[in-house]
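Hi all, long-time lurker, first post. I run a small reading group and we've been trying to get comfortable going from sequence to structure in the token notation. Rather than ask abstract questions, I figured I'd post a concrete chain and ask someone more experienced to write out its structure so we can walk through it together at our next meeting. Sequence below, copied exactly:
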Amino acid sequence: MKRTLSFIGLFVVFAFATAQAISISPQQPGDPSIKTTSVLGKVTEINAAAGTLTVKTDAGSVVLVNTAEKTTFDRMPPGETDRTKAIKTSLTELTVGDGVYVRGFVAADRKSIPAQQIVVVSQSDIAKKQEKERMEWRRRGVSGIVASTNPATKEVTITSRALMGGPQSVVIPITDKTKVLRYPPDSIPKYIDAKRSSFEEVKVGDQLRALGDKSTDGLRLTPEEVVFGTFKIAGGTVTVVDPVTNTITIADLQTKKPMTIVLKPDTVVRRFTGMMGGGPGGPAAGAPPAGGASPQATPQGPGAGQRPGGAGPGGPPAGGGGPNMADLIERLPTIAITEIKVGDMIIMSTLPGTDQTRLTAVSMVTGVEPLLQMLAQRQAAGGQPRPSNVDLQGNFGGMFGGGGP
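-- Answer (accepted) --
Happy to help. Here is the structure in token form:
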């Protein structure tokens, strides 16, 4: 859980605080980003000579912003809500892609606004902040499946499975100072959408990521922040691909019953590229050495597959001991949704809602039959190794769905 903080998520936080400060009047019907005295959106065109901006809202509305000599321009750091932290800027310093909050009186047709104030969060500043946060979660974070909870000590133990060897465990004590967040069900996990939670809501089987200071042996982590969700790992063979509705149908790996998988723009799709060395436990073909750079997921337009803000990079192996399944998956190449074919075997992560026959894919890997066969051989005790016998949750839980920004 390409787990990046979206522009609109960052900017809405700021806009909310700014709106309170200047007492914005009620929004007009229709586009929620267009209110009587403000517009929130992204810059799509700049005409410095005419003193105008074209702004597109998240809902797709286009508004012409007219500036004048008295228009003020303020640049806010991403995620900042304290208006005293704003830095004065100008029209000539804005770029296409910047997020803007425009204050003024919107025209009756809702297509233009004479700007009294323009507050901007630059796209480059957002990208820098996101990259810094991703690196911090990779360097100081752990991820895995909740194996146990201790109500007496408020400790959570998570496990992750290494590519070679058994499970690795980390104990995470949660205190009143720990920021605890939970992803809502039936959603694409985004960090900005995570809700405040508590130790009491963490359950065995949940997927969890934590950011903090690790002990020297890597077996404990003192968390500053914990993000978790009740994820499910599902798998099966693709029987139908419907590009019109952006859904696929699979025959469930265990039950063989049909299951509808919804692929949203934020769904990240990867393709398994085979094994090196030809033997069980070998790393993914083309994967960089442990600790090496891994490619970022495809950009927004997650069919393009933006890695959801709750879907940050795969964390380091819990407790050390070599790369885990999260590392393997993170290094696989991303593909377009249209490249999924009938007959592909897939595994995927989902935050299931009430309908267990219709799931929204958070992250998906296609072409996994060789990997499942390898795992089936590893766990088979004598009998015929079958991919349908692989414990998906035990082997792949924690590889998707992420945690940090």
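A couple of things your group might point at:
The mean pLDDT is 77.
The chain has three domains: 7-121, 128-229, 232-396.
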